[in-house]
Design goal:
Blueprint: H1 2-19, H2 22-31, E1 37-41, H3 51-64, E2 70-72, E3 75-77, H4 81-91, H5 95-98, E4 114-121, E5 126-133, H6 146-165, E6 168-177, E7 186-197, E8 200-209, E9 215-225, H7 228-232
Antiparallel strand pairs: 1-3, 2-4, 4-5, 5-7, 6-9, 7-8, 8-9
Length: 233
């Protein structure tokens, strides 16, 4: 439940930035009025990005020029005092412990962990994540940990469900690992909203090498739309 609340807050903020809905903005202002984010957009190239990640980034930025694709900014949130106080009351967590809380995929220094940028296209109901896994994400020697790619899959399909379905939470995520992913390599995580049935949003996903010749992973997922007012309560 705690993890679900964190995911909900992040998704609400992404959706508000993408759609700018007045109702959602009002809800955010009421509940997260003290939230602050740093000025650094972590989805922009840095010196730790390899050539494949930089090349793919440029390709997708060109697709954005005509408005058919959009890049999704990504920031490292600073501490949210209101949310911290709520957690302290509910979970009895010491303030000094809570001060260490960070967004999981942006918690490591540049180049050591999750380096990624996401793009989406409204027309195709697709979200693409360009991801480079750093040395702190190693599983077997020389390869990316399965949990690290699962994290990025969940983030990518969840973003797709959020953009095209509304406020959602993960109900089911099925991952089929085909081949291990070399550490420090760049992969393309391509997610597609397959169908929306009532409150259910179905999304599928593939993880491929930068040249799209190697299929590393496949996944399917189910998300459930939430009632915004009830979720805030």
């Amino acid at each position: 439940m705690f993890a679900g609340c964190c995911a909900l807050r992040l998704r609400m903020r992404i959706l508000g930035a993408l759609r700018g809905g007045a109702r959602l903005k009002d809800a955010q202002q009421r509940s997260f009025s003290s939230a602050q984010v740093s000025q650094k957009d972590c989805s922009l190239p840095n010196n730790c990005w390899n050539q494949d990640l930089k090349r793919l980034f440029e390709q997708f930025m060109k697709k954005c020029e005509d408005g058919s694709w959009e890049r999704i900014p990504s920031y490292k949130p600073q501490q949210d005092q209101d949310y911290k106080t709520h957690l302290l009351d509910a979970k009895k967590i010491k303030e000094e412990q809570m001060s260490l809380a960070r967004l999981f995929t942006r918690s490591l220094e540049d180049g050591l962990g999750f380096e990624y940028v996401m793009f989406y296209t409204e027309a195709e109901k697709r979200t693409v994540c360009l991801f480079q896994g750093g040395p702190f994400l190693q599983g077997g020697p020389g390869f990316l940990h399965g949990g690290a790619i699962a994290t990025m899959i969940d983030g990518t399909v969840g973003t797709a469900a959020l953009i095209f379905g509304g406020i959602v939470m993960t109900a089911n995520l099925n991952i089929n690992y085909k081949k291990p992913i070399p550490l420090l390599s760049t992969v393309i995580i391509n997610s597609q909203v397959d169908k929306i049935e009532g409150r259910k949003v179905y999304v599928s996903c593939t993880v491929q090498s930068a040249d799209e010749k190697t299929l590393y992973t496949e996944a399917t997922s189910l998300f459930i739309k939430l009632d915004l007012d009830k979720s805030l309560q």
